[in-house]
């Protein structure tokens, strides 16, 4: 029996993006346009369907507290915050004051700034400083790939049972699973994918959305 998956072309991908709630969103569309003006750095912005998926996931699980590692210009954080209740809390961690200044403006325009606390600096020491209690419901990780495993080990004990961790770029442009790579980020991603599949602390599935989303539920 043939494997069941569907390759996407631009026409089919546009169809996917058009047929979702909030396909036309003035705030997110403006944010995408401004981010695209950054040039090559704009590639770090998540896709439209990833954002919609995260909003739905956060709302469906009833998450109240969330954390994001790697905020960039704020597309993913806006989507996460929209899924949280009005009294929800999202901690955003990023090292760039310049990029997160764009995020701050769009959080305000989206009406979610009251849910978000931005912490500027290196992610690992900030994570280490968090209270070591299971208080988080949701985590999104999209920063330095070589540090993904460290982020995971720091977040997991702070995550409630049945809480979710979502990793971005886990297919690394299709370069994982097709032979050995010398790229440190690719090696780190491949190693983490293998680790998560065998880690009894979580239940996990690798989804072929955009550049690959690894979704983990804490047991």
Q: What's the topology here?
A:
Elements: H1 10-18, H2 26-36, H3 48-60, E1 65-69, H4 75-83, E2 89-94, H5 97-110, E3 116-120, H6 123-129, E4 136-141, H7 148-155, E5 159-167, H8 184-198, E6 202-207, E7 213-218
Parallel strand pairs: 1-2, 1-4, 2-3, 4-5
Antiparallel strand pairs: 5-7, 6-7
Helix pairs in contact: 2-5, 3-4, 4-5, 6-7
Describe this structure in words.
- The chain has 219 residues and is an alpha/beta fold.
- The chain has one domain: Rossmann fold.
- 39% of the residues lie in helices and 20% in strands.
- The chain is built from 8 helices and 7 strands.
- The protein has a 7-stranded mixed β-sheet with strand order 3-2-1-4-5-7-6, with helices on both faces.
- Strand 2, helix 5 and strand 3 form a beta-alpha-beta unit.
- Helix 2 packs antiparallel against helix 5, helix 3 (48-60) runs parallel beside helix 4 (75-83) and helix 4 packs parallel to helix 5 (97-110).
- The protein is globular and about 50 Å long.
- The protein starts with 9 loop residues before the first helix and ends with a strand.
- The mean pLDDT is 96.
């Amino acid at each position: 029996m043939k494997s069941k998956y569907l390759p996407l072309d631009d026409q089919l991908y546009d169809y996917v993006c058009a047929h979702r709630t909030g396909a036309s969103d003035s705030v997110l569309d403006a944010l995408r346009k401004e981010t695209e003006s950054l040039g090559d750095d704009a590639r770090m912005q998540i896709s439209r369907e990833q954002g919609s998926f995260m909003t739905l996931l956060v709302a469906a699980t009833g998450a109240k507290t969330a954390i994001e590692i790697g905020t960039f210009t704020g597309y993913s954080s806006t989507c996460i915050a929209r899924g949280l209740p009005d009294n929800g809390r999202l901690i955003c961690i990023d090292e760039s004051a310049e990029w997160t200044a764009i995020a701050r403006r769009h959080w305000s325009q989206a009406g979610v700034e009251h849910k978000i606390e931005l912490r500027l600096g290196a992610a690992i020491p900030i994570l280490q400083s968090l209270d070591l209690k299971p208080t988080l419901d949701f985590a999104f990780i999209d920063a330095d790939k070589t540090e993904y495993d460290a982020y995971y080990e720091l977040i997991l004990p702070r995550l409630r049972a049945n809480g979710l961790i979502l990793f971005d770029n886990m297919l690394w442009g299709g370069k994982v699973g097709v032979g050995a790579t010398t790229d440190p980020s690719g090696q780190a991603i491949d190693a983490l994918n293998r680790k998560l599949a065998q880690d009894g602390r979580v239940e996990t599935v690798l989804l072929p959305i955009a550049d690959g989303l690894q979704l983990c539920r804490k047991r």
